[in-house]
Amino acid sequence: MKLILHVWRQKNPAQAGRMVRYEANDVNPDMSMVELLDVVNEELILKSEEPIAFEHDCREGICGSCGFMINGIAHGPEAATTVCQLSMRHFKDGDELYIEPWRAKAFPIIKDLVVDRSAFDRIIEAGGYISVPTGSAPDGNVILVPKDASDRAMDAAACIGCGACVAACPNASAALFTGAKIAHLGLLPQGQPERHQRALSMVRQFNAEQFGSCTNIGECEAVCPKEIKLEVIARMNRDFIHASLS
Amino acid sequence: MLLDSRAPSGPIEKLWDQARFEMKLVNPANKRKHTIIVVGSGLAGASAAATLGELGYNVKCFCFQDSPRRAHSIAAQGGINAAKNYHGDGDSVFRLFYDTLKGGDFRSREPNVYRLAQISVDIIDQCVAQGVPFAREYGGTLANRSFGGAQVSRTFYARGQTGQQLLLGAYQALERQVDSGHVQMFPRTEMLDLVVVDGHARGIVTRNLVTGRIESHAADSVVLATGGYGNVYFLSTNAKGSNCTAIWRAYKHGAAFANPCFTQIHPTCIPVSGEYQSKLTLMSESLRNDGRIWVPKKAKDKRPPNQIPEDERDYYLERRYPSFGNLVPRDVASRNAKAVCDEGRGVGETGLGVYLDFSDAIRQFGVDLVRERYGNLFEMYQRITDEDPYKVPMRIYPAMHYAMGGLWVDYFLMSTIPGLFVTGEANFSDHGANRLGASALMQGLSDGYFVLPYTVGDYIAGTKLEKIDASHSAFTRAEAGVTELTARLLGIQGRRTVDWFHRRLGKIMWDDCGMSRTAAGLESAISQIRELREEYWKDVKVAGSADDLNQSLEKAGRVADFFELGELMCLDALHRKESCGGHFREEYQTADGEAQRNDEEFSYVAAWEYKGADQAPVLHKEPLTFEYVHPSQRSYK
Amino acid sequence: MSVVSAGVAPFYSSTVGKKAVMAVSGCVLFLFVLGHLAGNLQIYEGPEKLDNYSRLLHSMPALLWGARITLLVMVALHIWSSIQLAVRNYEARPTGYVRKKAAGSSYASRTMYWSGPIILAFVIYHLLDFTFGTVNPAFQVGNVYANVVASFQLPLVSGFYILAMVLLCMHLYHGLWSMFQSLGFHRATTLKRGAAVVAILIAAGNISIPVSVMAGLVK
Q1: What is the DSSP letter of C24?
Q2: B90-106: per-residue pLDDT in tens?
Q3: B58-62 sheet: strands from edge to edge
Q4: Domains in chain B and their CATH numbers?
Q5: Which among B359, B390, B522, B597 is most buried, taking Cβ atoms within 10 Å?
Q6: pLDDT-derived band of residue B378, with 50, 70 and 90 as boundaries?
Q7: What residues of B act catalytically?
Q8: Which of A216, A215, A180, A185 shows the shortest CA–CA distance to A198?
Q9: What is the pLDDT, as a whole number, of residue B363?
Q10: For an interface test with A, which of B59, B67, B266, B395 has the most A Cβ atoms less than 10 Å from its Cβ?
Q11: Is the Cβ of C2 closer than 8 Å to some Cβ of chain B?
Q12: Which of A56, A77, A111 is the last residue of a domain?
């Protein structure tokens, strides 16, 4: 089948970008979205044009490298699917696809579809961990964790840090990302000693990175490839409010 | 070149204690004056960088991804082994040691493997304390499963995302050290050369992947934790960016490369569907716990699976290996899949696939239990293939997955270049000729959290190093070399893309140096690779420039190294005239088609020394001796 | 982890703190809306009952003014926080998308920045109409029942009132469940359903009054 792609091309942060139209003929329905870009890029290289820069690595939906907007939806139309696992059978012959990078002040564009998501690392750096020096841990079974708590912590910990939540949010908020880590660690007994300080530090960093605020509308939850729930944001709010006012 | 493993002698269970006691210590006040470079931020790299930072060293950690959290350790699904014996089912450190050594077909070093088994228990404790959400029983204790054919339940897991959770634990520990100022992180930075001064590894040359800047970093010691080289096959379960460049440049500076031909083909991957395919997706091995593998008895049987009656199906693993059945080790399962496909009994459009059928499990346990155990894997399968595994058997085929080979290291994880340490999949390590399931995560974290922090300290405390910085002529020379190589790649402007060449290299490797190998095939592969490489340097086309983000250029450098590594792999496979683990030479098999080891002649680690671009590498042998586990024919019948 | 100090100032300067302020002030305003509805519905019991209720409120000036000042403060906090957040959110995405689709949010949640100001405009008009009588030529001090009937007999006034109540319904639907979320309580399905029921009941109760007046049921 044939698809028309409109792709955001931008040489570097300083130069202005624009949408460029490409035609992809011979699209195999079993291809993934990034494999389609591979094919387009092969043709561009042979025509001595610069290939479209886009991030990707594991191509199995877990590393969180890939991600862009397809027709206005982060990671495209399929729920719980990153672009590297989005197969072309979800599109029809002749469809037009508008492909744009994540857009947020906190995610400056580097080139084409590649953006700088290091703000996420700095949010983790601010407190997204449990301070436990190597070798100082007691036996694993000394810390009993109720199955329910462990399961819910795992739900939150499944975040791959792709940035789709920020991209989809009308406010470019990183609340889902920040909340996921606060919820993951805060649900476990190991995370209790630093729970409140963690919420204070991580929220402060999330604000310092110039992400917007959460308005609880749920766009992030809808596009999250790992189906992280808004509940994690409520947990972040609770821990932060408790830490601030107690 | 002398290959001294430096393993202490004595009772095996005391060796690591003894070694730790004998190691020299660095004065805590002096640690921050020593710079340690860690290349790679996967399990082995992130855990090492975090721990070294915590000890007070000045650590610089590099990764080519945009964040250390993206390293490919993240994709490991199944679990991590540890000899905790929480189930009282007969596990012990010695049994894990025994299983790993035997699983590796007796091609690994006893003291290393024993240490790995010993440390395995500490890893779980450390990860639990970090908040890794391991699966739990209702009573709150840690859950285990049996995995990859182990007869005991020693595998700890976090749903189907164990690698992700362990990596995030290490990543978070790393970020904690970044926050404290002990670790400086260099993401989007690729190591392009190693710098050796007076015989010691003293730093690296890198390319900033955003600006294209070539930079030098000096240090007292360099740790390579850069993962495996499975992408030499083009199609593999590795991430697209996984590459051999760092270890290959170290090899060219004198680090011996051990057992390059020992690669692992994983039996349960989603089959190739077309020419455009860019990578293969692994389905967790845990599927083999309940799924039954079969092909039609008749060749070229094109009926849909549900229309093939029971008595016309060949459950070939259950038939050939009655005691292990579908749970035979990876190498055995893969080879058998290839064999039935070679007989024309493969399924799916390409004929390269076998069925993994859950209908019996669904009948026996009910669809709900199957969904609970494998739901996320079934969803992933359906997302990719558009087929519903609850109704139609899955189709699977082996794919390149893991490299047991890598840079040679001694007991202290130091390569043949003093000061150059190699950890995780990048070293030749503890898995011998075949790695058992759920052991890679164990090894990466063992090296990074618990071995390297001691051994690097011992090296630093015991070595008098001249003070140098990045202005040293060795760095300037290395930078010039890297710049020249980049210019050369950009200057060819031929007619074929990098991927075009990479696919062809991959096909040669897969056909002749893949699941089964022959002398004739390997010889032909070597000459084909040489021809293709020559063509590469004349006809490759790399778009863009050297001074900005250029993914096509990044790939070009990596593929150039894969060509050379591919040739060395074939050479190693050709010289090893035996079958063992993942290395199966068709000439050397038992009457019933099983791998035939030759312990008399090949019970050694093959370590290759680089001698220059136009010279054949020289083979050195580290003999393997077995005091505790007597080599036997592996039998899974 | 570097120690971050707790306290009111850093709390309010954070996005989470501002949302908490919006939640608390919104909650007070919601309670007022609820009480106001209870008062309004007395219209169905005749002029005497409603006018007496009004007199009762005015007989306790301390309470009345206390409530009025509290409400004004809440309105100010609600609006000021929302403006600060809106500016911040606008700045968080300097370049917009060429194409953008909503994937999972409700219409009500996306239009809070519209429904809010329109409701504010309505409240001002409403005060001028029924409290100060400025825009109501038939206004008589103390005769609440008569004032209401007089105003609602004008279709334009009733229309604006009904429109405002529809917007209030939407604002409350998102605001009510969002208030819990912002304060850290999460029961998405239950809260969203509950919020929808409450918002619809409030709007329906209020809308019934102009409808009844225009239908001639309340004269």
Answers
A1: H
A2: 999 999 999 999 999 99
A3: B183-186, B58-62, B35-39, B221-224, B420-422
A4: 265-400 (3.90.700.10), 473-604 (1.20.58.100)
A5: B597
A6: very high
A7: 330
A8: A185
A9: 95
A10: B67
A11: yes
A12: A111
Predicted confidence pLDDT, tens digits, chain C (219 residues): 777 778 889 999 999 999 999 999 999 999 999 999 999 999 999 999 999 999 999 999 999 999 999 999 999 999 999 999 999 999 999 999 999 999 999 999 999 999 999 999 999 999 999 999 999 888 998 899 999 999 999 999 999 999 999 999 999 999 999 999 999 998 878 899 999 999 999 999 999 999 999 999 988
CB-nearest to C92 from A71, A171, A235 is A171
- Residue numbers of A between 66 and 105 with CB closer than 8 Å to C: 69, 71-74, 98, 100, 103-105
Chain A CB within 8 Å of residue C104 CB: yes
Domain co-membership, A163 together with A196: yes
pLDDT digits (tens, 9 = 90+) for A129-170: 999 999 999 999 999 999 999 999 999 999 999 999 999 999
Assigned token pair, B322: 């009655």
CB B475 within 8 A of CB B216: yes
Nearest to C93 among A105, A127, A207 (CB): A105
Both tokens of residue A150? 């462990």
Question: Cα–Cα distance between C11 and A240 in angstroms, integer?
Answer: 8
CA A190 to chain centre: 26
Please, is A142 exposed, middle or buried when counting C-beta atoms within 10 Å of its C-beta (0-12, 13-18, 19+)? exposed
Pick A55's closest partner by Cβ from B66, B74, B450: B66
The reply to whether A156 and A173 lie within a common domain is yes
pLDDT of residue B78: 84
Torsion of CA A128, A130, A134, A137, to 10 degrees: -160
B547 touches chain A (CB under 8 A): no
CA-nearest residue to A48 within chain B is B543
Residue written as token pair 């009457």: B591
Question: Which pairing describes strands B200-208 and B189-197: parallel, antiparallel, or unpaired?
Answer: antiparallel
Q: Residues near B118 by Cβ (< 8 Å), separated by ≥ 6?
A: B13, B16, B93
Q: Enumerate residues 602 to 621 of chain B having a beta carbon within 8 A of any beta carbon in chain A.
A: none
The residues that bridge with B621 in the sheet, in sequence order, are B606
Answer positive or negative: Cα dihedral of A53, A54, A58, A60. negative
Q: Any idea of the CA torsion for B260, B261, B267, B271, to the nearest 10 degrees?
A: 90
SS (H, E, C) B299-316: CCCCCCHHHCCHHHEECH
Domain count, chain A: 2
Position B504 pLDDT exceeds 80: yes
A133 and A236 in a common domain: yes
For residue A22, what is the domain's CATH number? Answer: 3.10.20.30
Rounded Cα–Cα distance for residues C68 and C131 (Å): 12
* Phi, psi for A123 (deg, rounded to 5): -65, -40
Query: pLDDT tens digits for B246-297?
Result: 999 999 999 999 999 999 999 999 999 888 899 999 998 889 989 999 999 9
From chain A, pick out residues whose CB is under 8 angstroms from the CB of C7.
244
Chain B nearest-CA distance from A51, in A, is 7
Residue A200 lies in domain: 118-245
